[in-house]
Amino acid sequence: RSVYPQKACGDAPYTVDEATLRAAIHIPSGFTYGAKPPVILMPGTGNTGFETFQGNFIPALKGQSYADAVWLNVPGSLLDDSQTNSEFIAYAINYIGGIASRNVSVIAWSQGNINTQWAFKYWPSARQVTTTHIAISPDYAGTTMVPLICPEGLPCPLSVLQQRYLGASDFITTLRSNDGDSAYVPTTTLYSSNFDLIVQPQQGIGASAYILDARNVGVTNNEVQTICAGTVAGGFWTHENMLINSLTFALAKDALINGGPGRVSRIDLKTVCNQPLTPGLGLAELLLTENSLLIGLAKIITTPLKATIEPATRAYVNAMPACDA
């Protein structure tokens, strides 16, 4: 069944051509095309999928029976219009689901989560083939840190402008409208209240990562300092090294195996919270994971995809394609 230009009535129109959308999906040589459950890895601002995940979920999921990872290397490294970035994950969900002939799961970092949420909102067909979404360091409400990265009035990457906090961003306001601040598919958020230098606020129920569940699809919000209080996994964790946190991996694994959101009640917290990193990964992987932030900041500085005002909201937001009765 074709997934382009539209998989189902009610899906938003794509502005990116199908060849470009497909070329952004990296399918490793060992991909099983549905023998194992496919997982799409969606990066964060200023990164390709490989740059975000090479030190964490790519090696951690390799050889596992419950996950078969592919990742997205989006042109512009997610510094383009977030509405455009979202087309890549919307397409990938339906394309990978199609070639694997089974539902997919999504693991995303940072901006990749609001791209994924936008895709679920405006491409309803993507919801139907998604088992679970694991959201690491998401900024569903944007971040108050944008003015430090991009002072007002100076040219700034398009997607960074769109991640200004709450009412300062048309993209975030639109995303959150009509219960867009609630999950569309079973969702597990993982975030750090202690040392996320990119997304603020990031504490408790006021965290930008915190997502609601108006649709009763199943949500768990997991602040590592609360769940693993007083242990290494609940200590100082940055925006990026949440990708290699042991609780992050344990809850992601739980969600992938069981479907629905990851649940603390099903994991051995005493063991998990006392693991310094995702089991099997070490200093080399930690350094690769930390490097993802440096790569992102370098691309934010050098990208030509800059403006002083955020891109206009796409027409489909106010006039979604009608489904024939």
Automatic annotation (TrEMBL):
InterPro entries: AB_hydrolase_fold, Stereospecific_Lipase. Gene3D superfamilies: alpha/beta hydrolase. GO terms for molecular function: hydrolase activity. Keywords: Hydrolase. The keyword Hydrolase applies. It comes from the Eukaryota. This is Alpha/beta-hydrolase. It comes from Aureobasidium pullulans (Black yeast).
